C-alpha cells in the first residue's frame, strides 16, 4: 500500500525538500536543466525511500537509524549545484574561465549519476524481492512505470545539458559514457561497503560516502588520463584539457589518499597469501608471525607513501622537488607562524585527549556530552588557523585524515604492537553510531570541518563558507546538545535544543564577520539568507536520524553559497 503524501512527509523529509527548494529558487535560467534533474532526483529518491521503509532487510544497516535514502541522494548533487551557482556569478564577473565552470558542471552530473545509479539499483532489488513473493515487499506496475519515467526524464535532461557544453557529438557520447561509469562504480562500491561493513551505516550514509568517493577518485583518474595523454603524445597534437588548475596541496592530499587506497588493497591481498603459508607452517610461534606481519605492514606503508604516491603526484603536477621535500619547504617558508601553530595543536591535543580519556574511564558523564567536548576542541584548533593560516590548515587536514586512516587500518587488522592499544583507546569515545568493525565518528568530525574549507578554495565571494563545518558542528551542534540536555523542555529530537544551536551559530557569525572584515575580507554575506541557512541546518540536526557530522556541514555550506 502506497503511503499518502501527508503520512510520508516526516520532519527529515520536509527539511530536505525545503533545502532543495531553497537552492532551486536561487538558480539562474542558464541552469534550468540542472534544476529539473535535481527535482527529478529528489522525487525519485523520496519514492524509493518510502518504498524501502519496511524493506531494510535488504542490507544490515546501522541499528536505530532510518534509511536516509533521500537525504543521502540529494546532498552531494545539491552541494555541487550550489557551487555551480557561485561559479556562475564569478563567470558573469569574468573572474574565472569557462573551463572551471564546465568542470563543475561535469562534477554535478557525475554526482547525480552516482546517486541515480544507486537509486535504480535499490529499485531493482525491491522489485526482485516483490517478484519472489517476499511478504515485506510489494511493488505494483505503477511503481515500475514511475521509476522508469524518472530515469528516462533524468537521462534526457542530462543529454541535453551535456550537449550544450560539448563541441561534438563524440564529445557528448564520451561524457555520457564517463557518467555511466560513475553510476556503475557507485553501485558496486555501495554493495561492497554495506556487505563488508554490516551495521556500520544507514543506506543514506553509505550513499553519501559512496558518491563522494567515486566522484573524488573519478576526478583523480580523469586528471591522470589527461596528463598521461599529454606526456605520451605531443601537446600540440592533443587538445585534452580536464578540470581546473590544481594546487600543490590539493594534489598532495589526493596522492596520499590514493597511496593509502592502493596500500589497503595490496596489503589485504598479501595478508591472504601470508595466512595461507601460516597454515602450512605451524612450527613458527604466533608472536613471530605477528612481528613479521607487522614488519610487512609498515614496510609496505612506507614504500607507498614515499615512492608510489609521490610518483603519481609528480606525474599529475610538475613538482620541482620530491613532494615530501616540498612539504618541508612550505612549512619552513613561514617557520615562526606554522611551527608555533603545530606546537599549539600538539599541546592542545595532548592535554585534551589525556583529560577526556581519564574522564571517559572513571566518570558517569554521558558519552554524547563527552564527545561534544571534541567539537569544542575542533573550534579552538581550527578557527584561529583558518583565519590566519588557511593554506597551512588545508595541508594539516590532509595529514590528520591520513593519520586517522592509518590508525583505523592498524586497529581493524590488529597490527602488532599498536593494534590492540589503538582499539582500546578509540573504544573509550564510541557511541551507538560506531561499531566494533568501524569507528567513524572522528572521521566525520574531521571531514565535516575540512570539506567546506577544501571546497571553498579558488573563487569565494561568501566569507563564511569555509567556516560552515566549524560553525555548524563545533558551535551549533555542541550547544544544541549541551543546552538541550540540561535545560531543554520542548524537545523536537533526542539530541538537544534546536533553538540553542541556531542562536549560538548566529551569535558566532555576528562576532566572526567583523573579525573577518578587520583581516581584509570583503563582506558580501547578507543576514536574511544567513538566517535561512542556519535555521535549515539546525532543523536538520533536530529531525535527522543520520550521522549529523556528515550531512549538516554540507547542507550549511550549500546554503551559504547562494
Automatic annotation (TrEMBL):
Q: In which organism is this protein found?
A: Gossypium mustelinum (Cotton)
Any Gene Ontology CC annotation: endoplasmic reticulum membrane
Q: What does the record say about its membrane topology?
A: Multi-pass membrane protein
Keyword Kinase in annotation = yes
Q: Which UniProt keywords apply?
A: Endoplasmic reticulum, Kinase, Membrane, Transferase, Transmembrane, Transmembrane helix
Q: Which PANTHER family match?
A: DOLICHOL KINASE (PTHR13205:SF15), TRANSMEMBRANE PROTEIN 15-RELATED (PTHR13205)
Does the record carry Ribosomal protein as a key word? Answer: no
EC numbers? 2.7.1.108
The residues that cross the membrane are 15-48, 69-88, 108-127, 148-170, 249-274, 295-316, 336-357, 369-389, 395-416, 437-455, 467-487, 499-523, 543-560
- Subcellular compartments: Endoplasmic reticulum membrane
Q: Which domain of life is it from?
A: Eukaryota
Mention one GO molecular function: dolichol kinase activity
What is the name listed in the Swiss-Prot or TrEMBL entry for this protein? Answer: dolichol kinase
Lineage per the UniProt record: Eukaryota, Viridiplantae, Streptophyta, Embryophyta, Tracheophyta
The text of the family note is: Belongs to the polyprenol kinase family.
Query: Which GO terms are recorded in the biological process aspect for this UniProt protein?
Result: dolichyl monophosphate biosynthetic process
